[in-house]
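Quick start: what a row looks like.
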Amino acid sequence: MSVTKFKIKHTKIIAYTYQSTPWRRTSGDDVRIDTILKYISRGELLYAFTLGLDGKNQTVRREKVLYLVQPRPVYSLLSKIFNWKNHYDLNPLAKATLYIDEIILALRLARMEKTAIYIFGSMTLMPAFLRTFGYKGKIIYDPLSNYAQTLYLRSRKSLSETLKYGLYLALHRVALRASDVVIYPSRIDRDNAIRMYRNLHKKTIKVVPNPIPICYQSIEEYNSYRSRKADDKPHFVLLARSNGASNEEAVKLTIEVFSRVKKPYKLTITGSWHHLNPYNPNIKIVGYLPTERLKELLATADYGLVPVFTHAAGTFLKTITYIAAGLDVITTPLGIDLELIQQTHTKIYLLRRPEDYLPTVNQIIDNHNPNRDRKPLLCTQAEKRITEALEGLG
């Protein structure tokens, strides 16, 4: 598959990410990429290059976004040599070969000098590679998720944490230096990135909030789901669809804490965590739910859980999903989205330490008000947040 084959030399903007299948929206990063590309296409066909893991060229069209999946020659070769079976985004072999495969694609994309390139990815060095190969156009760089927030907090936790994340921070600096516009999902991320990286304030920095994966078309739709709530017991929910480190931490800690709660409650956990089920009648693990079932779950629940202290990936997505559904939220400093909180009536219970979790849950149960006013964020309001933030890009 060649760039010229699709006659995109003179298009206004294209996109790149090392995420292999963002149109499937299976992770928070995928949701952010696919949603933002939809908005910046502005009704015209937008070409988005991704790095596939199966060694094949592929095109996937989603509305006005045409994903051009590029094979990864080095990754594919080593996969065959080592009989590698773990083909998921950012698996160890994918990380080890990422920059070589990015260089190969950058050699081609660098020729599109009059085209702006929107680049997604916390680990990418594509901005630097493009500049090295003579690209003169505009580079818009979106590190994805709340990595700046995570790195800022972790790198200041202790000397060992600083050393552990030192290489990551150095690589991130290279990508930032080569970019013209840097996009962050929150003001917290922006401010922490400016503290970490000297001269970043000289760049054009925009805040584009994370998209909300689950929203309601109207208050009537929300109330129809809410009316299905079976009883007045305080209902807690933990969204943990993927098997990532942050979800594993959250699920294990939550089951441990709620198994010690003696008062009446309900806890629902999504995702494939049945092997951790303590056979507690108050705790239900429901596996993967389709969108309609998720809407019902969020509308009938009362409290959303984000008890993540060390692995922050995905925490913001959980938080904004809960807030958009009108739930109060139990979270940690890694999962706060202050801008969205200010637009809603959500109450935040902030956990500074894992030891705070159980007493906070007991306090919530003691003071539970089943008739609390709920004001979800509607889809039209969620879309407005994105479109206003993206004005002027490209």
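That is the whole record. Confidence is low (pLDDT under 50) at residues 1-6. The domain at 4-211+384-389 is CATH 3.40.50.2000 (Rossmann fold).
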